[in-house]
Specification:
The chain has about 675 residues and is α+β, with helices and mostly antiparallel strands. The protein is about 15% helix and about 45% strand. The protein folds into 3 domains: about 220 residues, no CATH class; about 100 residues, no CATH class; about 350 residues, no CATH class. The two termini are about 50 Å apart. The C terminus is likely disordered.
Length: about 675
Amino acid sequence: MGKIIKILVILGLLVVVALAGIIFTTDINQYKEQIVQVVKDNTGRDFEISGDLKLAPSLIPTIAVEGVTLGNASWAKEKNMLSVTKFEAQIALMPLLKKNIQVIKFILIEPNIYLETNNKGEGNWVLATGPTPKETEPVTESGATTLPGLAVNEVHIEDANISYKDGKTGETTKLHIDEVTINSESFSDPMSLFIKADINESDLEMEGTLGSINNLLDNKDYPVNIKGNIAGAEISIEGTLGQPMDAKGIDLLATLNIKELSSLNKLAGAELPEVGPIIFSGKLSDTKTGYSVKAMAAQIMEYKVNGDVEIGLGGARPELIATLSTDSLDVSPFQGASEEEAIKKDKVFPSDPLPLEGLKAADVDLKFKAQKLITKDLTLDDVTLTLTLNNGKLQITQNAKAVGGTISANIDLDGSNGKSATLSNNIEIKQFEIGLIPAIKAKNLLTGGKSDISINVKGTGSSVSNIMAGLNGALLIKVGKGNISNKSLNVASADALVSTLSLINPGANKAEGSILECAVVNFNIKDGIATANNGIGISTNRLNVYGGGTINLKTEALDIGIKPKAQEGVGLNLSQLAGLVRIGGTIANPAPKADTKAALSAGLSAGAAIASGGLSLLGEGALSGSSKDSGNPCDIALGIAPMKKAEKPKTEKSTVEKTTSTVKDAASAVGDKLKSLF
């Protein structure tokens, strides 16, 4: 921007100086060609004055030039980089008689500036080198360029339009200036500044003081003290630019106060969360390859984040290096749609192409620590996060504590080829107490239940659905001993495991609680098919539950079967138990139903492999006899004990007597849980 200002100043002054030198002639238009040539020589661009040169002699002579254009770079799409409807300069008469040019007021009407870069990052504002200062401008003993006998008291710009187009991304930013006024007693005195404009339809107002024109043109220490607001956000910048024309020697203190983040929606071009106030401050300086913000302090509502940020521009891609820390931070307003909102969709895994090119737009090295991190679902303690992004390869490592346990995650996403991404996901959760999860704790569903969760998967694709369709790996959930509130089960339906127990738990209406001995969910995933071969097991003090089935991650189809069996000695028989609970449909829309005798018979065919899934994966022992006959369901689900084959009792008959509505509630809950797991 400093170079653009210099261009405008040079163009204006060249015209004014040339015209002032011939102010007493009768026809100043005869000098138009000479003026045009002077500008061409100093810019290396085509320059044209389509209108007349006008002179209004008086005690305050006024010089006007209409229809001025400056050509663009050869590769640029716009013909002209600059066009001005009218230049106007009011010149003090008495100093002019002494060969001193004092511009009382310099006015630009409707200047239009088109800035853009090509696909190599080159800017159209880079001009050819004109004559050296030694040839055209006097130089002081100290080496500073001077403009003796020339002064400008006020510069006024009206109705200006500035657009900037990024040649690599194609994104365009537009700035409309209603008014800019710059006042100064002389070129050596500080300037006062006032701006009223809008950027991307967001109001902008700024005012303050700047260094002198001499210091700007001489590219030396340039003080800045500006305050204003943009889209309601208050901004303050104070400090010094050591080399303003080169954007070097930056030593600025910047502050930002945003009442509500959503007020910047138009400026950001996105829907931002309704969060505020947000207060930011930091010391901005330049580095060898870019810029840095030291001693950064940000406050989001009552939460504070501190750290250092550095932006490097010297490599093949911009680089962001940040080290941030906080005592406490609530990120829930910045998270996406809730699980409730997400499951309303027909598909859980989106098929939209992944923005892989975005992964190569910049490199990132982020280190983040938080004593407490509040999310929509959990509060995490002692969080450490490292995120690196290098040429399209994303790596995330996270460690934290939550609800009595520990969480460690290693996520790799390699999108470096720009066509598809390879995901490697390794998540380990240890001694995680399910009963302390806010959603469960609030309903008093379960106490205890220390759990281990392991997710190890890998897949490749150009979208999330594409990756899931070819996923390979394993999911294992192990839940330890706890207490189930039967009274709460009767009114709760959100949690899959305990809601299923409310359906199949005999005597739940009579007893206040049940003891959960263990629960296991064990899926192996191959080529997008998640299979639990007798891999679902639940054990309580009253019954055992055996289950198996498939989840087709390609189609998101479900085929899960779950069957309860009475514990030995509890006084229950098969007629008191629910029949087989079968869950079909999709992950987003489970379709529950109770199996008929024919379906049960099909399930009893030992070793039958039905491609659609689940029922055939329940061994014969899970569908008849007592729990003692079949073995511990958790050990069976873990694969450390085989399913025992048992004979059907001759004195008992298996029935499916539960109501369809009750089965639907439990099966829907199971589906919801599966969605959260995958």
